[in-house]
Each structure stands twice: as structure tokens, then as C-alpha cells.
Amino acid sequence: MRAMVLDRPGLPLRREERPLPEPGPGELRLRVHACAVCRTDLHLVDGELPEPRLPVVPGHQIVGVVEAAGPGTRRFAAGDRVGVAWLGGSCGDCEFCRRGEENLCDAPVFTGYTRDGGFADACLADERFALPIPAGFDDRSAAPLLCAGLIGYRAYRMALEGTREVTRIGFYGFGAAAHLLAQVARHQGREVFAFTRAGDGAAQALALRLGARWAGGGGDAPPAPLDAAIVFAPVGELVPAALGAVRKGGVVVCAGIHMSDLPSFPYRLLWGERVLRSVANLTRRDGEELLRLAAAIPIRPETRAYPLEAAGAALDDLRHGRISGSAVLLPELAPPYGGGIRP
After folding, report:
1. Of the candidates 16, 102, 10, which has an alpha carbon nearest to the alpha carbon of residue 49?
2. In sequence order, what are the residues at sequence separation of 6 or more whose Cβ sits closer than 8 angstroms to the Cβ of residue 335?
3. What are the domain boundaries of the chain?
4. Which pLDDT band holds residue 339 (cuts at 50, 70, 90)?
5. Which of 23, 27, 28, 84 is the most buried (most CB within 10 A)?
6. DSSP label at 262?
């Protein structure tokens, strides 16, 4: 099998030929059909995440078919199509797991970070953390739901829970996650305000096409006060801007696993019972809820396809803001690479 391997942060991914991994107790081996590329993969490659297991195969938005199962597996059979997300396992014993907060587990397993992920032809997964993929999604469309969708959904749910009523919601950074959650918000009758990099006409056009009421730059003031905002972009200076855009009692949720340092800001931006909180990882419940909702709406991800060998090029396109929607690696797509491929 082929695998794109990170030997050390800062180095390019390296293609390696490996034998197929054998599933252990409770594990599945999946034939990878699609793996979406996440900003977390970029943070890993760029050395912004601490203590990865090296060498490691990145990728944690995996759609594949079960081709082998280890002892003790019960939920899936050969030929079943499943998804694998960032949280690849939890200890089940710490105080957080016992409270149902497995996303805060003290000894977690993360796909593509502490165990090999989906930038490969095949991978292993803990059967307990695999998710059945709804029939209405092809592999390429389903892959972005498994992190961009799941983390976005958890952040969205926190934004709704933390305030009295959310009619107007802002998304800072309109990429893989925001373009999915905008569809959820519009489906539920909420007004969406999109904040993008200055001059990013493609992202603003996508937001407006998906039903956003307004789209502008990250430092722009929206035409009406927001009830809640989610900061998807890993840019700390957007947090004060978001606090300044929400009404009293509003909520700002930071949805990334990594963000540049927050600048100092005047207390008046937080005052008025505004709430600032972060999201950490996800739970299996998040996955089950989002996939049901995605099928019911249905959510339609915008994707750009790349061959497996072009994983580094996809990461570079993401780094420089050249992707509208989600990049997806398709192992069966033949190289050579000549740019992201649309249908």
C-alpha cells in the first residue's frame, strides 16, 4: 500500500510503500476511498502541534470500506462503508470519559496524529469510534463532514446553547467548516454573516451563494449585531473583532485546535455578559447527530479532488488560501498532479 508519511514537522510528506496493516482486537482495516485535508493536518506538518507520533501518516477525515476485522469486532462487516474522525479512541476510565466528555479524555488517541491516518491506501481504526456513512453521500462529499463538519457542528451547538436566542450568527473564516455549517444555519432559518480574508472574493461569493445575508473582511463590522460568532480561522486577532461584533449576552466560540496568540483587548469587549469559549475535539455523539442532520438537509460540500501523491500540494493550497470549500485526497485518482481537480 502507498502512504504519505511525515518524518518531521517542516519536511515534505514522503511517499512510502508499506505492507497492509493487520487489525488487532477491536480494530478494522479500511480500504481508504477518500480523505479530506484539514487545517489540523497543516498545523501538524508545520510543527504547530506538540508531540506527534513520528513518523506518522496524517489524515483524519477518512471514508473507507471495511476489508478486514480483528478479533472482537461486532458493529461492522466486510464491505460496510464507514468514516473515521479525529478522535480515534479514548481511555474510558478518566473523570472526563466517565462524565460522557470523551473529547476531553486524559489519554486520547488521535487519528493522523498519535496513530496513522488516511493519507494512504488503507488504515486501521478502532471499531467503537467508526461512524456509518449515510447512503446519500458519495465518498468525496462525505469526507469533509468528518472533521470540518463535526468540529463545526460542535462549535455551532455550543454557540446556540450559550445564549438566549440566535437569529444572526457570524463565521470568521469561510472555508471547509463554515461552508458546511452555513447550510445548517440557513436550513434552521438563521441569518449568516461571513467574514473572510481581505479581498477573498471566492470565499465571499461562496458564502453569498450558500445564502449568507452579508460577506466581508475579518475586520469589518457587520450590518447588524450578531447573537453569536464562531472563529474558524486560526487567527487570534479575530477574537476581539468577534467580541466587538456580538451583542450583549452573545457568545464567541473558538473552533480551532491551534490559534495564534490572542492580543490584549479592552474589558468592555467582554463585558455585558458576553461569553468566550473554545471547542476541544469531538465526541461520537457529535458525529452521529451531524451525519443524521447532514443527510436530512442535505448538506452539499464543495470539494476539490487531489491524487494521494499530491497531499503536499493540497496542504500548500490550503496554507495559501487557494481552496474554496474542502480539499479531498482520492487514492484511486491517478497522478501526475496538475492542480486540484473538479468534476
Report:
1. 10
2. 307, 309, 310
3. 2-144+303-330, 149-278
4. very low
5. 84
6. P
C-alpha 164: how far from chain center: 27
- Predicted pLDDT at 161: 87
Rounded to the nearest 5°, which phi and psi values hold at 250? -80, 170
Joined together, the cell numbers standing for residue 192 give 449568516
* Cβ atoms of 218 and 159 closer than 8 Å: no
Helix axis angle for 148-161 and 284-296, nearest 10°, is: 100
149-278 is classed CATH 3.30.980.10 = no
Q: How far is CA 171 from the centre of its chain?
A: 14
What H or E segment, with its residue span, contains residue 253?
Answer: strand 246-254
Residue 335 pLDDT level (bands cut at 50, 70, 90): low
Q: What pLDDT digit, counting tens, does each position of 256-312 carry?
A: 999 999 999 999 999 999 999 999 999 999 999 999 999 999 999 999 999 999 999
2-144+303-330 CATH pick, 3.30.830.10, 3.90.180.10, 3.40.50.20, 1.20.1260.10 = 3.90.180.10
**pLDDT score of 338 more than 50:** no
* For the chain, counts of helices (H) and of strands (E): 9, 17
Q: Rounded to an integer, what distance in angstroms lies between the CA atom of residue 242 and that of residue 222?
A: 10
d(CA 19, CA 36): 23
Q: What is the pLDDT of residues 216-255, one digit of tens each?
A: 999 999 999 999 999 999 999 999 999 999 999 999 999 9
Per the listing, cell 476531553 goes with: 104
